[in-house]
Amino acid sequence: MSAYIIFGLLIAFMLTGMPISIALGLTVLAFLFGLSDIPIETVALKLFTGIEKFEIMAIPFFILAGNFLTHGGVARRMIRFATSMVGHWYGGLGLAGVLACALFAAVSGSSPATVVAIGSILLPAMAKQGFPPRFGAGVITTSGSLGILIPPSIVMVIYAVSTNTSVGKLFMAGVIPGLVLATLLGLTTWYRARKHNYPRLTRATWRERFVALRDSFWGLLLIVVVIGGIYSGLFTPTEAAAMSAVYAFIVAVFVYKDLTLRQVPKVLLDSASMSAMLLYIITNAVLFSFLMTYENIPQAMAQWLLDMGLGAVGFLLMVNLLLLLAGNVMEPSSIVLILAPILFPVAMQLGIDPIHFGILIVVNMEVGMCHPPVGLNLYVASGITKMGITELTIAVWPWLLTMLGFLLLVTYWPPLSLWLPRQLGMM
Hints:
- This protein is an all-alpha fold.
- The chain has helices at residues 2-15, 20-35, 40-51, 58-71, 74-86, 92-108, 111-129, 133-143, 154-163, 167-173, 175-196, 206-232, 237-255, 264-294, 297-307, 311-326, 332-349, 354-368, 376-385, 389-412, 415-423.
- It has 21 helices and no strands.
- The model has no long low-confidence stretch (mean pLDDT 84).
C-alpha cells in the first residue's frame, strides 16, 4: 500500500509540471509528516550520510573541466582535426561531427555540453555547405549523446554512487561501447550522405592533418590524463576529475589563451550553478531512496520480479522498456537515482554483472536524451538550429534506430562492455 501512495504522490506532483527534484523532496516530506512515524532526526542523518561520498565530488570537477574547455575553444580545434581526417568522405562535415562529438565526449562528461560545443560551430558550417538542416541536426543531436557513454561520464558517477559500484571499472567499460556506437553513427551518417549525394570536402594533406592534430593536442591530452591516470592507479576517478579541472583551466587560459582571467569567474559560476542543480537532485533522490528502503519497497519489488520467473533475458528486456518509458518524462540523473536502487538488487540475484548493468542503463539514458518529450539533447539542438521539437524528432529517427539496435547488442552481449576492464585486470 505504501508503494502505491509514494509513487502516486510522486506522479501527482510531476503532473503539475514541478521539477523532478522538488517532486521527489515533496513526496518524501508529505509521506513523512502524514503517513509515517520515522523520526525527522533520522531523515536528517540519512541526508548527510547519503551524500557524504568521495565519488560525488567528481561531478562538480568534471562539470568545471567541461565548461573550461567549452569556453576555451577546444571544441573548435577538435572539429578542425576531425574534419581533416574524415571530411573527404561522403557527408564530410557530418562524419567530422560524429568524430568531434566522440573526442569532446572524452573530455566533457556531458551530452548537452557536447551538443552545444560541437553543434554551435558545426551546424552553421554544414548549412553553408548545402547540407539539409535535418541531416545536420540528426547527426549532432544523437552523436552528442556519446558524452555520457565515453568516459568521463557524470551519469556513470551517479550510477556508481547509487549502487556502490566502482567508478573506474565503469569508465573503462564505457570505452569500447562508446567507440562502437560512434562507428555505427558514423556509418549511418555516411550511408545517408552517399544515398543523397551530400557534399564532400577536398582531401586534407598529411601536413594539414599534422597541423590540426598539433593545435588540438593539448585538449586531446586530457583524455590521457583522465583515463591513463585511472588505469595506472595514479588517480582515483575523483582525483582524476580534480586534475582534469586544473588541467582544463591551464590549457584554456595559459596555453590556448581563448579564455581570459576576467572570464574565469563566470565559468566558475556557471559550473557551480549546474553542480548545485545536480547535487540537489541527488540529495532529494537519496531521501526518496531512504524512504523506499524503510518501507521495504525495493525488496518487495525485487521479490515480485523474481517470482514472475522472467530470467535474465526477460528481466533485461523489461528493464530496457521501463528505462525507455522513463526517458519520456525524466532526465537521466533522476532516472538512475530512482530506478537503479530498485532494479540493481534484482540484477545481482539473476547473476548480471553490475558493470554490464551500469553500461546498459547509460545506453538507455543516451536514447532517452534523443527522443521527446523531455530529451535534453533535442532541446539543446532546437536552441541552436531554431527547429521545432517535432521536426527534430523526425530528423533524428535514422540515427535513433541505430542506437536502439546498439542497445540490444549491449544488453545481450556483455563482453562488449566487460572485455576491456577484464583485460586491464580490473575485474
